[in-house]
Amino acid sequence: MSKISAAITAVGAYVPDYVLTNQILETMVDTNDEWITSRTGIKERRILKDDGKGTSYLAIKAAQNLIDKKGIDPKDIELVIVATATPDMKAASTAAFTASEIGATNAFSFDMDAACSSFLFGMSVASTYIESGRYKNVLLIGADKMSSIINYKDRATCIIFGDGAGAVLFEPNEENLGLQDEYLRSDGTGREFLQATYGGSSYALTAEILEKGGHCAFQEGRTVFKNAVFNMADATVKILERNNLTKESVDWLAAHQANKRIIDATAKRIDLDEDKVMMNIQKYGNTTSATLPLLLNDYESLLKKGDNIIFAAFGGGFNWGAIYLKWAYNSKN
Asked: 215, 216, 256, 319: which is the annotated catalytic residue?
């Protein structure tokens, strides 16, 4: 009997209609298009403006897109994981609500949070469930409404983040396609440099804190940038070395879309040609848990069965790592 591996067999995505351009941001905070573009590579980002709609709305839309494209019966989905740093509520599962709303009534579900590495870590978890042989259909969704924790007077963060969601379906594979290897790491001493401090159990959210914007995301940009550049590139190199991969044998780099300079540095470290680097940061900004599946959705028509894809991410915590995956199907598009 062939060894079971966990392969991605479908993708879906959703981004809100409202486009927040660099030109609009110029009217909100002390910045300009040239400054943003040269430092981040971002030209615009999508924002969910509708009152009362949170991360679950984005996740549901992305899941429905996948279900429609794949033609799968939602009742066949056995597990729904929502990777997110911005759940709808503190004490009610965003994944459970998402599963119910898409009709995945036979699935159990839970949320995962590893900041910008949430989807990467979720790939590991979803794959393990498949490889165990216990489940055959696992839906992994990366979704974040980052605009809900962004201070639009803080140019260090408001220029970077956007809202969006992407979804992938993991199924068993006996052709040695799917997830091949992973290198995942965490370092909790770095959390002071990138966090949304108030609203958790350590720091209560009060009216005074809300007025000061204390519930919003904060980052010490230089420290985060330095750690992201080193650790994403280092994890990528380790994955290549462990699997005897060369720049010629890597078909795609799917790196977390936090900053174009970080992505470029990771690609340069492994001497990868620019046309092998997935990039959509210019359209969406940093959508946190959604960047990797949004890349897969945007590049799906270019992916071929057997392609070697290296995923890499870095996020608050600190959390980072890389995953080596062999693509499992040819797109019908």
From this structure: 256
Query: Exposed, middle or buried: residue 30 (CB in 10 Å: 0-12, 13-18, 19+)?
Result: exposed
Candidates 137, 286, 297, 319; catalytic one:
286
What would the pLDDT profile of 89-136 be if each residue is shown by its tens digit?
Answer: 888 999 999 999 999 999 999 999 998 999 999 999 999 999 999 999
Residues 138, 183: one domain?
A: no
Residues 145 and 264 in one domain: no
Question: Quick check: is 215 catalytic?
Answer: no
* Count of Cβ atoms closer than 10 Å to residue 140 Cβ: 26
Domain limits at 131?
5-175
pTM of the predicted protein model: 0.93
Residue count of the chain, please give it: 333
* Rg for the chain, CA atoms, rounded: 19
Give tens-digit pLDDT for 191-222.
665 556 545 666 566 666 666 665 666 666 67
DSSP 116: B
Per cent of the chain over pLDDT 70 is 89
Q: Which of 22, 65, 116, 215 is catalytic?
A: 116
Pair (155, 214) in one structural domain = no
Looking at the chain, the number of H-run helices and the number of E-run strands are: 11, 13
Whether residues 83 and 208 fall in one domain: no
Say how far apart CA 146 and CA 75 lie, in whole Å. Answer: 30
Last residue of a domain, one of 175, 210, 233: 175
Which of 151, 175, 199 is at the close of a domain? 175
**Number of domains into which the chain is organized:** 2
The burial of 31, by beta-carbon neighbours within 10 Å (0-12 exposed, 13-18 middle, 19 or more buried), is given as middle
The verdict on whether 116 is a catalytic residue reads yes
151, with CB counted inside 10 A (0-12, 13-18, 19+), is middle
Stretch (H or E) spanning 165: strand 163-173
Q: Is residue 258 part of a domain?
A: yes
Q: Is residue 312 part of a domain?
A: yes
Q: Verify whether residue 286 is a known catalytic residue.
A: yes
Nearest to 82 by CA among 9, 161, 165: 165
